[in-house]
UniProtKB/TrEMBL annotation:
Record's protein name: U4/U6 snRNA-associated-splicing factor PRP24
One GO BP annotation of this record: mRNA processing
InterPro entries: HAT (IPR003107), Nucleotide-bd_a/b_plait_sf (IPR012677), Prp24_RRM1 (IPR034397), RBD_domain_sf (IPR035979), RRM_dom (IPR000504), RRM_occluded (IPR031766), TPR-like_helical_dom_sf (IPR011990)
Basic and acidic residues: compositionally biased ranges: 648-664, 1098-1124
Organism: Elsinoe ampelina
GO molecular function: RNA binding
Keyword Protease attributed: no
Keyword Nuclease included in the entry's annotation: no
């Protein structure tokens, strides 16, 4: 009987061909299955390394084979001949193709053996099935299913050949029986089952299946009057079994005692006592693990793959972490658990590595590590790390060049490594090159070994460059960690070829010159060479020419780099080197150069800090409260009303207030905080498991660089998830893309660059939210994220970024560009280009645009054109209006020439109608501030010109208030006003207005960006009461809710929770009634909650005047219903 070593099972150098694409149809295949098979064969013709497609094709063809064999040939009920299955050739080709590339796994092996068993009609075919079984159990040695198939096949063949059971006369000739009688002996049968027992005995869950069958065969050979030796052998068989932890211990024990009672009755009690004593440890170990075993059984029976994975993960974690005292069988049971886990999840690289690490930790010289790595690379041939471990292990175990080279060629020539990405290829090449370097300089090495190593390392460098450009295009700049280059430099150094080594360093400067780590290692190498030369030549005296001048030149070159990631450390190294090694003259020059560089760096850091601070201030909420008068009183002083000098009487105080809480992104430098380039610093990850989490993605990509954000979207069409991951720098993206094709939680992922996959979308209706934008673009592909800009300091921004999973989907969605929406707006849909904003042009940059403030609200465009006509030719006039159509008092005018705009500045402080104008050149900042100067933290809609019509059945916005509300006092305004809390800064005022307009006409809407909310004043108190009673505002934001004005003004988001908890869910407490103005001009100026000389918010209510409570609002609301 021929045996196979594990190394024989590695995929062939030339993988087998997949079934050729053609039309598939048969009565045993459904129309849908036939169509899917045709699609899979076509796909595999070009993508022959897709693991899942191979498995799906095999399973579909096997399903057809089963349907064929189960279908009677005719009315007599005679079964169909399995050999007549029309797609039998394709089924065998599909299995052979997958087997030549991957380990097929327990399930496919089971079906394969069963199918070939049904087809075996000759002694040669029966022997072929036996060899197939042998391959299966060597590939999956812990499989109870495969060992049982193997054992039962050799036993049934033996039984028919020897006449112990009937065989099919059509398939069993006398010649076949004679041949099989010689090949399939009783000794072979027991040998196979004995091997099965040994291979599976530590499987606590199912090992009894194999052992019980073996014990049954042994007992069949037991004579009626066995010898004492035979009795002792059977007793030893049972006692050895009872000392091993397994789930069926009681059953084994119950089958043992009758045997002892029959053949050793006089020592039954003694034997039972001894057996229980030696089996106590086994039972104890089983009891420790019983809870985990139950979880595994439950997950397996539920057919829930995720639950099974979690159960195995928890069990393995317990085995490795949570046992203070090791048990007598811990090693065997832990290895068996790894085998069981990998039987169910054979492509999980992490578990293979954990298994290898565990064995290596126990015994670095263990002979079981190499066979395990051979199986691991068979199951996960795309994993460079597993191949690298195997290369190293072959070197340790064999010390033979041919063996190591053979493994390297199997790894690189199979065509599977590239499916795992460049990182996998680099791991194999770097391990191979390290081996070549070590071998070239052993005591027995020859010049040929040195030459061979040099040629092979240089060839690997070329292969990496070619493979990288093939995978990532011309943007591939080599290994970001330059691993093979380091090995080559060390090789050249050991070969005493220093100038060639320096040439390698010089070639790396354009690629790695931005890295402090690179320069530090380059410098250390030069110091090492200098020190070695001084040691060899015994140079102790310092003088001209003895300093490490080449090391000094390295640091000088490093100081010249403009894009260093850590210049401060280079400065430290530079100062230390010159002070330690150089002459006084050189130290003096270095001090000057260092100080100059430090000053330049400090100036750069100051600029970065200022820019970061400005950005942070623009992103942070202001802390300036708004006075009650500016919100509630009809005669508030205008912020833009001029004083006698013509200047603004009051500037917006928010401009001068620094934010208390500056929130910035995690970054290596201040510049990184202000130069956030999402499109070029992001990757898109496709084909993720549907249950993937952000934490798992951060773990998987964490060592590629600093991760800013992770977005996950479910793709219903492919039953998978897609994620975008934003990194800090483009170099991180290059490293992350090397993970393309790797397996993450059992799924083979695709990693693509995020460039060209994001759309810039603008000019959509102001009422559009994320759902409306998503509906517009959803038909073009998987939308990973939709980002809206912050409106905190520019409330007129109306654009968003829509990111798709691929650049092709984004390009297809640009078809919506210039499409008319709601009859007026025409969409702008463009591929997002982060660099476009760097090249500014237009009227502002050319100095042709002016900014005019403090314009009379009744003024028209014609008034402005006539007023500024004498300055020059006016191209456009842009007057800023609120969403309700009301002019805000700010405008921009573009002239044909910059000289004309300069002439228009002479109109500053001149009157137009009843106001003094403020005129200045427009800038990007002034354009933003214009939209927010007056309403930097508020946005006001007046009822007289509301942009939203009243809902059906509601009073008109301009209709008089209800009876009893004609007295428009501050108190009645407070009763008509509600607050919106926790408003996201991406929701515009139009959406807020439209939401509340559905409940009744609105007199005034004040959006408070600084407080994270809004104040809504209704025309009627009853409408305010309706809104106060638990209105769901989550459509505006997940945490949005209606609350108290006092809650908003006291701190908005920060105190909303506490106030609402105190006051109840959405119900307004009794209003705080403030004292009226009783004359007198002393005391502080009236403001929010204060009157000159009066009490503040915390003051007592005026006598005879009582605020309305929740019950008052409810009564008013019900009364209104009765009137209707």
């Amino acid at each position: 009987m021929r045996t196979h070593s594990a190394s024989d099972l590695v995929m062939a150098e030339a993988p087998a061909q997949t079934p050729p694409p053609r039309s598939f149809s048969a009565t045993s295949l459904s129309e849908a299955d036939a169509k899917t098979i045709q699609e899979l064969t076509t796909y595999l013709a070009d993508n022959s390394y897709d693991y899942n497609s191979h498995a799906q094709l095999i399973n579909l063809l096997h399903r057809g084979f089963q349907a064929h064999t189960d279908t009677p040939l005719n009315e007599s009920g005679q079964p169909s001949n399995p050999a007549d299955y029309p797609w039998l050739t394709e089924l065998r080709m599909a299995r052979g193709a997958m087997d030549s590339r991957y380990a097929v796994g327990e399930d496919i092996w089971r079906d394969w053996i069963n199918d070939e068993s049904a087809l075996a009609h000759s002694s040669e075919e029966r022997s072929a099935v036996m060899e197939l079984c042998m391959r299966a159990v060597q590939e999956e040695p812990a499989s109870v299913v495969l060992w049982s198939l193997y054992g039962e096949w050799v036993w049934s063949t033996y039984a028919v050949a020897n006449g112990y059971m009937e065989g099919d006369e059509d398939t069993w000739s006398e010649e076949d029986k004679l041949i099989c009688k010689e090949v399939f002996s009783r000794k072979m049968v027991l040998s196979v089952w004995s091997q099965a027992v040994e291979a599976t005995k530590w499987r606590m869950d199912e090992s009894q299946v194999v052992w019980n069958r073996y014990a049954e065969l042994v007992m069949q050979d037991l004579p009626e009057q066995p010898t004492s030796q035979t009795i002792e052998e059977v007793q030893l068989l049972y006692m050895n079994r009872l000392q091993i932890p397994h789930a069926h211990w009681e059953g084994t024990s119950q089958s043992f005692w009758p045997f002892i009672s029959k053949h050793k009755a006089d020592s039954w009690e003694e034997t039972m006592s001894a057996t229980n004593e030696i089996a106590a440890a086994a039972k104890d170990e089983h009891n420790k693990r019983e809870m985990h075993e139950l979880e595994l059984t439950k997950a397996f029976r539920s057919n829930d793959s995720a639950a099974l994975y979690n159960a195995f993960s928890a069990y393995l974690h317990w085995e490795s972490k949570f046992k203070k005292k090791r048990g007598p069988f811990d090693h065997e049971l832990r290895c068996a658990l790894y085998e069981r886990a990998l039987l169910r999840f054979p492509t999980l690289v992490e578990w293979w590595l954990d298994y290898v690490d565990y064995l290596t930790t126990l015994d670095t010289a263990s002979t079981g590590i190499l066979p395990l790595l051979e199986r691991a690379t068979r199951h996960c041939p795309w994993s460079g790390e597993l191949w690298a471990r195997r290369l190293l292990r072959v070197e340790l175990d064999t010390q033979m060049y041919d063996e190591v080279e053979g493994v390297k060629h199997k790894a690189t020539n199979s065509g599977l490594l590239p499916t795992g990405g460049m990182e996998e290829i680099l791991l194999v090449y770097s391990t191979w090159c390290s081996y070549l370097r070590r071998r070239a300089f052993t005591s027995l090495a020859t010049d040929d070994d040195v030459d061979m190593a040099e040629m092979a390392i240089a060839e690997c460098l070329n292969d990496v460059e070619n493979d990288g450009k093939k995978a990532y295009g011309d943007d591939f700049k080599g290994d970001p960690l330059w691993r093979i280059e380091k090995i080559f430099i060390k090789f050249l150094t050991q070969a005493r070829r220093m100038q060639e080594a320096r040439g390698q360093w010089a070639r790396l400067v354009p690629l790695q010159g931005h890295s402090y780590d690179f320069w530090a290692q380059y410098y250390e190498w030069e110091i090492f060479v200098w020190g070695a030369e001084r040691t060899v030549f015994n140079l102790r005296v310092e003088g001209p020419g003895t300093q490490p001048r080449l090391a000094s030149e390295v640091l000088r070159e490093a100081m010249k780099q403009k894009n260093l990631d850590w210049p401060e450390k280079i400065h430290q190294l530079y100062a230390h080197h010159f002070q330690t090694h150089e002459s006084p003259e050189e130290i003096q020059k270095a001090q000057v150069a260092l100080r100059r560089s430090q000053k330049a760096l400090k100036a750069r850091r100051d600029r970065e800090a200022e820019a970061a601070a400005a950005e942070a201030q623009a992103a942070a909420p202001t802390a300036q409260p708004l006075s009650e008068e500016s919100v509630f009183t009809a005669k508030r002083k205008r912020d833009d009303e001029p004083d006698t000098n013509g200047d603004s009487a009051k500037r917006n105080k928010t401009e001068d207030i620094a934010p208390d809480d500056v929130r910035t992104e995690p970054s290596a430098s201040a510049s990184a905080q202000i130069k956030r380039d999402r499109e070029n610093n992001s990757i898109t990850v496709l084909r993720l498991p549907t249950d993937i989490t952000e934490k798992r993605l951060r773990q998987f990509f964490g060592d590629c660089g600093t991760i800013f954000s992770v977005n996950i979207a479910q793709d219903d069409q492919t039953a998978s998830a897609t994620a975008t991951i934003e990194f800090e720098a483009p170099e991180d993206v290059v490293t992350a893309r090397t993970r393309d094709g790797k397996t993450l939680d059992g799924a083979e992922i695709q990693v693509k660059s995020g460039t060209q996959s994001t759309l810039y979308v603008t000019n959509y209706p102001a009422s559009f939210a994320e759902n409306e934008v998503r509906d517009l673009f959803s038909s073009y592909g998987t939308i990973v994220s939709i980002r809206f800009p912050s409106l905190k300091f520019n409330q007129r921004r109306r654009f968003c970024y829509v990111q798709f999973s691929t650049s092709q989907e984004a390009q297809a969605a640009t078809q919506l560009h210039d499409k008319a929406i709601d009859g007026s707006s025409r969409l702008v849909v463009l591929i997002s280009d982060p660099d476009a904003k760097k090249h500014r042009q237009g009227a502002i940059s050319e100095g042709r645009e002016i900014h005019i403030g403090n314009i009379e609200h009744a003024a028209t465009e014609d008034d402005l054109r006539e007023f500024f006509a004498e300055a020059g030719t006016i191209e456009t006039v842009r007057m800023l209006h609120a969403a309700n159509g009301k002019f805000t008092g700010t405008a921009f005018i573009i002239f044909s020439k910059s000289d004309e705009a300069q002439a228009a500045l002479n109109f500053n402080n001149r009157p137009l109608q009843s106001r003094i104008l403020r005129v200045s050149l427009a800038t990007d900042k002034s354009s933003r501030d214009a939209a927010n100067k007056k309403h930097g933290t508020t946005k006001v809609f007046e009822a007289a010109k509301t942009a939203s019509p009243a809902p059906e059945g509601a009073a008109d916005a301009s209709s008089p208030p209800a009876e009893g509300e004609s007295n428009d006092t501050a108190k009645t305004k407070r009763e008509r006003t509600v607050a919106l809390l926790n408003l996201p800064d991406t929701v515009n005022d139009v959406r807020v207005h439209d939401f509340f307009a559905a409940f009744g006409p609105i007199r005034k809407l004040t959006v408070r960006r600084d407080k994270g909310g809004a104040l809504v004043e209704f025309v009627n108190v009853a409408d305010a009461g309706k809104v106060s009673m638990n209105v769901d505002a989550s459509s505006l934001g997940p945490e949005c809710k209606v609350g108290e004005v006092a809650t908003l003004l006291a701190g908005g988001k920060k105190n909303a929770g506490a106030t609402e908890k105190k006051n109840g869910l959405g119900m307004r407490p009794a209003s705080v009634s403030r004292p009226g103005q009783n004359g007198g001009r002393g005391g502080r100026r009236g403001g929010l909650g204060f009157k000159r000389g009066g009490a503040g918010v915390e003051g007592k209510e005026q006598e005879g005047e009582k605020g309305k409570s929740n019950s008052d609002f409810r009564e008013m609301f019900l009364a209104g219903k009765k009137e209707e």
